[in-house]
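ENTRY TYPE: paired fold submission
RECORD: A
CONTENT: sequence, then C-alpha cells
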Amino acid sequence: MAGPSRNYSKELEKLLQGLQQKGSVPRLLLHACCAPCSSAVLEYLSQYFFITLLYYNPNIAPYEEYEKREAELRRLVSQMHFAHPVELLPCSYNGQAFVEAACGLEGEPEGGKRCEACFRLRLEYAAKEAARLHFEYYTTTLTISPMKNARLLNQLGEELGEKYGVAHLPSDFKKKDGYKRSIELSKEYGLYRQDYCGCAFSRAQRQREKERKDQLASVS
C-alpha cells in the first residue's frame, strides 16, 4: 500500500523519463470516466504510450447519461491529435454491478465508503482487462478531479495491479495544472461537462444542492 507522503505526480514523471531514455513506447490501458477528464490526460500520456481507453462506468445513471458521456469520449478521440494512437476498447453497460457494489452503503456520504467501493469496482475491471490483453500498464483518469482521493485511487490501483499481475501507473493528474488544462480543452472541443459525478446518489445530492440554492436566492 502507498504511504501518506508519496508524490504520485513526481513518481509518474520519473517513470516517463525512464521510458524516454529507453526509447520504448509501452501499451497503456486507461480507464476513462468521461471526455472532459480524459482530455488533458490523453494530451499528456499519449506522448509516452500507445493508449487504449476503457469506458467502464456501471455507476453512471441513468443509462441515457452513460450513453451521452460515452459519445462525447468517442468524439474527443476522433477529433484530438495524439502523438501516438489512441483507441477505445468496447465494453457493455452493467448497472447491476454498481448496485451490488453499493449495497449496504446507500447512506454513505459522497467521498465515503460507497465511492471507495465504486473505485474498486471500476479499477478491478480495468486491471483484469489489462492483464487479459497483456498491457504493460494500466491506470485511470479519475485522479484529475479535485473531488477524487488520489491517494486512495493509487492505493487501490497498486493493490489490484499486484493481484492481476499488471503494473499500475501512478498518477495525480490534477497536479501541474492538469485539471485547469482539462477545462481549457473542454472549452476548445465544446465538450459536455456533467454537473454530477455519475451515480444516482451523486445526482440526487446535486439536485438537493440546486434546490437549496434556489430557495436561498428566492429569499434574498
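RECORD: B
CONTENT: sequence, then C-alpha cells
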Amino acid sequence: MEQEKIVQTAGRDQLGAFAPKFAELNDDVLFGEVWSRTNKLDLRDRSLVTITSLISQGMTDNSLVYHLRSAKKNGISRSEIAEIITHIGFYAGWPKAWAAFNLAKGVWTEDTAGEDAKAAFQREMIFPIGEPNTAYVQYFIGNSYLAFISDKQIPIANVTFEPRCRNNWHIHKATKDGGQMLIGVAGRGWYQEEGKPAVEILPGKVIHIPANVKHWHG
C-alpha cells in the first residue's frame, strides 16, 4: 500500500494572503512532496531529523511543538524522546535541551499513565508487546507495536494496538492460497471486511481472512 499524500494547509491558513508563494511551497512542496516521500524515509525518521534540526538551532517555538506532536503521532515514544533530547544536548547545547524538554513534557505528559497501562497489558499476554511498529507506521492510524514470534512454516507476528489505533483498509493479494489469520491473545479489538459489519475480537477469537478481501483491524 502506498502512503497517502500528506495534506497540509497551515501555510495558506496563516500566510496565504500575505505570502502566497511561501504558503504554496510550505503546503504543497515541503509537506505534499518531501514529507510524503515515505519510500525514501518513513514519517518517524523524518520527524526525528526535523526535531533534531529545530532543537539544534534553538527553535523552541510553535514550530517545534507542532513537530514534537507529529513525532509522537509518528511513533516516537515518551522514553525515546527523552533519550533523543538528552543526546542532542551534548551536541547542540545544554540550554537548548532544557528548553526542548519543557515543551516535550507537555506533549508527552499523558503518556506516564500510558506506560503503566502498557506494563499492565503486557502481564495479560504470553507474547511480548515488542517495539514501536515504525516500519509500517504509514499504514496505521495511531500507535502500534510489533514483535515477530516465528518465521518458520507460518510467519507469526504479535501486533499490539493502542486504544483507538487501527490499520488502514488493505488487501493481501494472492493468486493461490494467501490471506491472513488473526488470533486474539489479549485485550479487545475489531475486524471488518468491506461491506460487512465489524466483528469484535476477544482473546481466543480466530478470524480467517481470504486473499484479496479488503479489510481493516485494530
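NOTES ON RECORD B: The chain has two domains: 10-110, 115-217. Helices lie at 10-15, 20-34, 43-56, 62-73, 78-92, 94-108, 111-124.
STATUS: closed
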